[in-house]
Design a protein that fits this description.
Layout (H helix, E strand, L loop, with lengths): L8 E4 L57 H18 L3 E4 L7 H11 L3 E4 L7 E2 L2 E2 L4 H13 L5 E3 L1 H10 L17 H4 L4 E3 L20 H8 L5 E2 L3 H6 L2 H16 L8 E7 L2 E6 L3 E5 L12 E6 L2 E5 L1
Parallel strand pairs: 1-2, 2-3, 3-6, 6-7, 7-8
Antiparallel strand pairs: 4-5, 9-10, 10-11, 11-13, 12-13
Helix pairs in contact: 1-2
GO molecular function: alpha-amylase activity; calcium ion binding
InterPro entries: A-amylase_bs_C (IPR012850), GH13_cat_dom (IPR006047)
Enzyme class: hydrolase
């Protein structure tokens, strides 16, 4: 991957680990015969081990690792350093980051020094029954708090933006402007730490726990790939959904690169109506999504790309 100038990111699953042998309580909570040969003290007392209580939420059905134990943290740090130096991973994704205190993420990042880190801090958006509430400030505040408590060393996946965007594209584009006139997700508050996405292996694909509406995928990418934050493209969409989707995403990526849109780019939202959203990003890119008709004023704008219910202009 380095030969092709691709940075490799390791998925760091250090919250829940199934053991190799049965121990206390008849659970697989011993790790005999593996390099990290922990005993039941490495597992939290709330998930069948002999360690302390969890410092986060439980991941049910699997032994949860007790990060309060010094020997656990020492071994994890050594393993992360091995991933960095020996294997060659440069970036980390911290899985199920709700499961343990973010202060440990800070310690692990300081110990292993990845170039970039992102945490999967996923909890439920604010719903009133099945209706997604307009104000998701408390949801994004929880993600921002987590980033803060990692010493601001880790970014986080912007689950707030995903939750809002996948409702907005159904004809509720008013959701895409918060009361302060900013984007309503983590992207609107702390764009340099917001990793935006439409779907991942949990929310979409074969698991489909919380999928983005399939007939609105390109509106979603037209939003993410023109906006601040750090956008990600889902493997399935890019490689498995056909040439047309692939080529449309590539065009949006090219516009982002050539117009130098980055995580901290400025944004001004023009329209956020039921059937129309439009904005200017970084002075050089205008975009709109939805059925409503809109185009930027001025002859300096040229249409850069367009598709079903979206269009992007550049200077």
């Amino acid at each position: 991957m380095r030969q092709y100038n691709v940075r490799a990111m390791a998925d760091i699953v250090i919250n829940h680990r199934v053991g190799t042998t049965k121990g206390h309580g008849g659970m697989y909570n011993r790790y005999d015969g593996v390099p990290l040969s922990w005993d039941e003290r490495a597992v939290t007392s709330c998930t069948g081990g002999l360690g302390n209580r969890s410092t986060g939420d439980n991941f049910n059905g699997v032994p949860n690792i007790d990060h309060t134990q010094h020997f656990v943290r020492k071994d994890i740090t050594a393993w992360l350093q091995w991933l960095r130096k020996n294997v060659g991973f440069q970036d980390f994704r911290f899985d199920f980051a709700r499961g343990y205190s973010p202060k440990y993420v800070k310690e692990y990042i300081e110990g292993a020094k990845p170039i970039f880190s992102v945490g999967e801090y996923w909890d439920s958006c604010n719903y009133n029954g099945h209706f997604l509430e307009y104000n998701q400030d408390s949801h994004r505040q929880r993600i921002v708090n987590w980033i803060d408590l990692t010493g601001q060393l880790s970014a986080a996946f912007d689950f707030t933006t995903k939750g809002i965007l996948q409702e907005a594209v159904k004809g509720q584009f008013w959701r895409l402007r918060d009361p302060q006139g900013k984007p309503p997700g983590v992207m609107g508050w702390w764009p340099s730490r917001a990793v935006t996405f439409i779907d991942n292996h949990d929310t979409g694909s074969t698991q489909a726990h919380w999928p983005f509406p399939s007939d609105h995928i390109m509106e979603g990418y037209a939003y993410l790939l023109t906006h601040p934050g750090m956008p990600t493209v889902f493997y399935d969409h890019f490689y498995d959904w056909g040439n047309s989707i692939h080529e449309q995403i590539v065009k949006l990526i090219d516009i982002r690169k050539h117009q130098d849109i980055h995580s901290r780019s400025s944004i001004k939202i023009f329209e956020a109506q039921p059937n129309l959203y439009s904005a200017i990003i970084g002075e050089k890119v205008c975009m709109k999504i939805g059925d409503g008709s809109w185009c930027p004023a001025g002859k300096e704008w040229t249409l850069a790309t367009f598709g079903h219910r979206y269009a992007v202009w550049q200077k």
